[in-house]
Each structure stands twice: as structure tokens, then as C-alpha cells.
Amino acid sequence: MYKLCYKILFVLSISLVMGASSYAQENEVSFEVKLSKEKLGINERLRVEFTMNKDGDNFNPPPFEGFKVVMGPSQSISSSWINGKRSFSKSYSYILVPTARGKFTIKQATIEISGDTFKTLPKTVEVTAAVDKPSDEKTVDDVADESLHLVAEVSKGNPYLNEAVTVVYKLYVSPSISVTNYRPLDNPKYNNFWSQDIPVTKHTAQNGTYQGKPYRFVILKRVVLYPQKFGSLEIEPLSLEIFVDVPTNRRDFFGGRIYTQTSKTVSAGRRTLNVKALPEAGKPVNFGGAVGDFDFSVTASKTQLNASESLQAKVEVSGKGNLKLFQLPEPELPSALEVYEPEFDENVRTNSSGMEGKVADNYTIVPTFRGKYPIPSISFSYFNPKTSKYVTLNSEEINIEVLEGPVGSSSDNSTVSSGNKQFVIPTGKQFHFIKLSPNLSKIGTNYFFGSNIFYIMLFAPLLLIPIAVFSFKKREAIASDVAGNKIKRANKLAKKYLSTAKKELGNKEAFYVALEKGLHNYLKAKLKIETSEFSKEKITAILTEKKVAIADTHGFIGLLKNCEMARYSPFSDVQMQNDYDLASEVISKLDKQL
Asked: Which parts of the chain span the membrane according to its record (predicted)?
């Protein structure tokens, strides 16, 4: 009996020990690192996998010194129940490429599981010289590496200051793989350049060669740059993530090759331009920064008119070059001509070789007195990068003749100032004769004094006095309303600059071109700034310096962005009307603050 009891107790104790051991094994946490190889060539890849048997939080990988992460972290989770027991596994995987030869340590990774922090053991990896990799041993990532190349082609490596440089980004793809999609990771900012993107409307694959091998290439991006500083300027790289289908050695049931999808980050690499300063030798005194090949003219809408009538004088530069990045010369006009602020007109298109078109200042001129007024010749200078020489163009002198109107105060003569010279020009007849025969007639029997007309004219001034007093007070009240006057002037200014855009409502392209011109012209007229400063960052900085409200600055920049987006996106008539109303409101607010 006692022996039987001892046997039962022994069996129970063994079962308890085994159960406890099994429970402890089930609840033991495992967190370890696995390497695809511990020795590899500098041209090979290393797969690092961190695995755990329980789910955790706040996973922190090591810094991977001596390696570059080309893919990862890729996360995978597996969970299953077998005979009532749960099996769980979670892993974080990285694909690394070595950056140098030597011995490197994969340091500890950490993770929190059930409130405790666990660490992996460090591992040592040796990187040797490049090894020969048989083609049949190449991985999908190896094939993608060899088959994708992003190249930035620069039209000129040593341009002059403000000379156009075209950058074309081409993606070369080997015929052995196919690209399914891509997304930009890092767009260059083009600091120290005036830049203009040339839209690529259609990505058409073309045949070409890369490093002597046949490839297909697609143009992804075009941009025209005008360097604003001389010296060594760096173009930031464009980086893309490319998703590709790579063929494997496996085949499906019908014998077709099986493809595997992977992604690869490609970069065009940094490019440096050595920008040459414009030569000082032979630089004209009136040189304003124009670089290119231009024509210059000054024209008038009419040369004969009466006083108080108006004419239009146009100062125009046309051709190819940095048309948006210099100011037009101003004409010297006689003091007897009333001249209004010029209206800037711009018709410039930017293609792959740079800006081309014309810019003009339109002056409204109103003569006050009768006479003849010469508009002297003015000069315009530019630098031609093809010949490396400065060119000066002179306009023709224009003579304006005012036929009818009041005579000038200087003894029936009109004085025209041109530099330090005075021209005295006779106007009209120089002598007037007095009539000797007055040809008078009798008044008759009806006397004016005592008539109805006499009394009406006598008392009419008395009736006009209260009207004049009321009118004077009304004008005084309007003049004292400073805020109201500012609003009226601002609204009038907004309508002036946006008049062309309003006419083009419903025509998307023409409307947004006119809207952008109106916004630019307003800033030029109001702040007297060069067109070369018309980047969004510089506009924001200038408006912030002028203490313009942040909301109004963002509104102005947002309108400029809408003008750019409208070239590539469908905008409705409602959106155009909203942008027009917003532009009027923004210009009004800016004008009150500036």
C-alpha cells in the first residue's frame, strides 16, 4: 500500500515539474538577430533580420555603421495554433550594402516586450574586396541595381551669370525589367538659381544607350535655370523611388517567366556649375543685367494730338534671354508732358532653351500745353553670351506735336528739358491784332435792370451758398475718412491690375496667365523690386520684412501656386471666380499694409 502511494506521488511530482518547465518555455522571450552572411564582398548585399517570439513596441534598430540601408525595415508576422498551442513570430528585415572594406559590428537592437526592454547580441561582419557574382546568383535587388539609372543632363557646365542652363532628368531602364510606378522622394530646391519647370506632358519611352549598352529612357523632368550668383554653384540631386518588375528563374504552369516586384531608390547625383561673372571690361554705364540676344524699340501711338488728349509710348525689349530678370530703361520726357506710372506688359514663354518673347512698359502721356516736344533717344545695353560682348541699342528720337491747347507760361513758348539743355520752341502765331471796328448795336427798349432775369441772377448766388457749404462738408468728411479712402484706393488698384484677368474669366489658361501677371505687376509697382526676386521664398521674406500679416502673405503665395497648378490641373469656372475675388481682396489688404 505504501509502495503504491509513493509511486503516485512520484508520478505527480514529475508531471508538475514537466508542466512548469513547459510553461516556462512557452513564456520565455526570444529576441535575436540573424545575418544572411558574416563575410561578404563590397559589391554584395547583406540581409539583417531581427526576430522575436512575442509582440513588442518601440523597436530601435542599430545605426548600421559601415553600411547603407537600401531597403527596410520590412515587417512580417506569423501566428498559428497547433494542438492548442499558439506559435508567434515577428521580424524586422533590412537590406544593407557596405560603404567600405573592413570589419564592422552590427550593434544591439532594442525592443520593449511586456514592459521589459530586450536587446540583441552584437554581430561582427567582414567586408572584403569585390567578388565575382555569377549571373544565376544575382538577387532581384542586384538586377534592379544594374538596370536602373537616373541621370541629370546639364546643357552647359560653365555658363555666364544669368545665362540659361537646361537640366533634363532621364531615367534609363534596361530592357530586361519593366517600371510599374515611381514617386519623388526629394525634389531639388535650386538655391541661387531662378528656375522654371518645363512640363513633361507625356512619358514616352525612347531607345538609347547608357555606358555603351542598349537601354530605354524616359524624360521625367525638365527645368531651366538662370544662375543668380557667379562661382561654384551646386544643383541638388533629384531622388526617386522606382517600383519595378524583375524576372526570376522560375516559370509558371504555361512556361511563362515569373516576375517579382521590388523597389529601388535612385538619385541623379549632385551636379556643380562653374558660373562665370560678366566681364567688367567694356561694361556700359547703363547696363541693367540683361543677358541674351535682344531687339529694342521705343514707339508712340501718335505724334500729333491736342492738349489734354493722351498717347501711349511703349518701351519694348524682345528676343531670347533673361527677359523676366531685368528692368527696362526709362525715357526722359519733357516736363510739360504729364506722365503716368507705366503698365508692364509681358509675353514670355519658357521652353527647353530658355525664355523667349517680349516685355514692355506702356506709358500714358498727356500734354498740357501747345507746342512741339521731342522724346530723346534712349539706350538699352545687354550682354551676349555667344559673342561674350556687350551690345548697346539706341532708339529713335520721337517728336510729339501738340496742335491745339493753352500756351505755356514762358511767354508763349514751351520749354522742353533734355539733360542740361533747354529748347525753346515757338507755338502758334506770335502776334495778335486788335479789332478797330467794334460793330456795336443798340440794346433797344427792353432794359435788363429790373427784369426777371436780373433778379434771378441777383439772388441765385445766395441760394448756392448752402449747397456749397454742404458740398464742402461732405468733401471734408470724405477726406477725413482715411481708412475708407485707403480701401477705395486699394480696390481701384486691384481692379487696375486684375482687369485683364477679369476679361478672361472662363478661359482657364489665359485667365491664370493674366492673374499671375497682375500679381507680379502689383509687387513690382508697389515694392519697386526686380523680377529676379520673384521666387515664392523671396516674396514671403520681403512681405514678412514689410510686416504684412501672415494670413495675407499666405493668401498671395497660395494664389501664385494656383496659377502654376492651373497649367496642369482642371480648374472650374467657380474656382476661377473664387481666385479672382481672392486676388482682389489680397491686393486690397496688402495695399493697406504696405
From this structure: 447-470
CB atoms closer than 10 angstroms to residue 383: 26
Segment of 360-374, 433-447, 531-545 carrying the highest mean pLDDT: 360-374
pLDDT tens-digit map of 35-52:
988 888 887 888 899 988
Q: Are strands 46-52 and 239-251 parallel, antiparallel or unpaired?
A: unpaired
Nearest-10 crossing angle of helices 508-527, 573-593 = 0
- Return the bridge partners of 222, or none: 168, 198
278 and 161 Cβ atoms separated by less than 8 Å: yes
Is 226:174 a contact under the CB 8 Å cutoff? no
SS3 per-residue string spanning 225-268:
EEECCCEEEEECCCEEEEEEEEEEEEECCCCCEEEEEEEEEEEC
Pairing of strands 413-418, 85-98: unpaired
What span, in angstroms and rounded, lies between the C-alpha atoms of 367 and 340?
Answer: 12
Q: Which residues of 441-459 are buried (b: 16+ CB within 10 A; e: fewer)?
A: eeeeeeeeeeeeeeeeeee
Q: What is the CA radius of gyration of the chain?
A: 41
Residues contacting 462, CB < 8 A, separation 6+: none
Q: C-alpha grid cell for residue 72?
A: 527596410
- Contact between 356 and 349 under an 8 Å Cβ cutoff? The reply is yes
- 76 versus 236: the higher-pLDDT residue is 236
**Sequence letter at residue 506:** G
Q: Please give the helix or strand (H or E) that residue 379 lies within, else none.
A: strand 379-384
Which residues touch 171 (CB under 8 Å, ≥6 apart)? 148, 149, 150, 151, 179, 182, 217, 218, 220, 240, 242, 266
pLDDT band at 334; cut points 50, 70, 90: confident
Tens of pLDDT, residue by residue over 180-195, are: 888 887 788 888 999 9
Confidence of residue 345 (pLDDT cuts 50, 70, 90): very high
Instruction: Tell me which residue of 419, 423, 315, 436 sits closest to 371, measured CA to CA.
Output: 423
CA distance 80 to 86: 6
Place of cell 517570439: 53
pLDDT for position 556: 82
CA distances from 463 to 150, 305, 552 (A): 87, 41, 51
Strands 379-384 and 389-394: antiparallel
Q: What are the phi and psi torsion angles at 151 (to 5°)?
A: -125, 135
Lowest-confidence segment of 238-247, 255-264, 280-289 by average pLDDT = 255-264
- Is beta strand 311-321 parallel, antiparallel or unpaired with respect to 354-367? antiparallel
**Residues 485-492, mean pLDDT to the nearest whole number:** 55
**Which distant-in-sequence residues (6+ apart) come within 8 Å of 157 by Cβ?**
273, 274
This prediction has a pTM of: 0.50
For residue 410, what is its C-alpha cell? 514762358
What whole-number distance in Å separates Cα of residue 583 and Cα of residue 418? 41
